[in-house]
Design goal:
Blueprint: H1 10-14, E1 18-28, E2 36-41, E3 46-51, E4 67-71, E5 77-79, E6 82-84, E7 87-88, E8 90-91, E9 100-101
Antiparallel strand pairs: 1-2, 1-4, 2-3, 4-7, 5-6, 8-9
């Protein structure tokens, strides 16, 4: 197990907006050997989020239709000519294991906040 990151305050944690979204589609980004383009439904808004899961899954499209957690208030970042508006909040990458989705135990409304 890795060392625990430095302590933060509750106000630091409150700055992160983590929400449940349903993955509507996963599209290949031909120019990238690891990135895919996800369209995610957050209830009252949708986002395009680029995710580096191409090498982690034989078929990245297998996550279509699943709910997962996403950070939705990161500054947008342009990659491969596509503006990414968020980040998939997965489990395992930082510890060097094949990541899995961080998912609610049962369906909740899209846009529901974590925390």
């Amino acid at each position: 197990m890795r060392d625990i990151k430095p302590e933060i305050s509750m106000s630091d944690l409150d700055k992160t907006d983590i929400r449940v979204g349903t993955i509507k589609s996963v599209e290949d980004i031909v120019q990238s050997d690891k990135m895919v383009k996800m369209t995610v439904d957050f209830g009252n808004f949708e986002r395009i989020i680029l995710v580096g899961m191409k090498k982690e899954r034989e078929n990245p499209k297998e996550v279509e239709g699943k709910q997962a957690l996403f950070v939705v208030n990161l500054a947008p970042k342009k990659m491969f000519g596509i503006l990414s508006h968020g980040m998939l909040f997965d489990i395992g990458y930082q510890d060097g294991i094949i990541p899995v989705l961080a998912m609610p135990e049962k369906a909740v409304p899209n846009g529901t906040r974590a925390g």
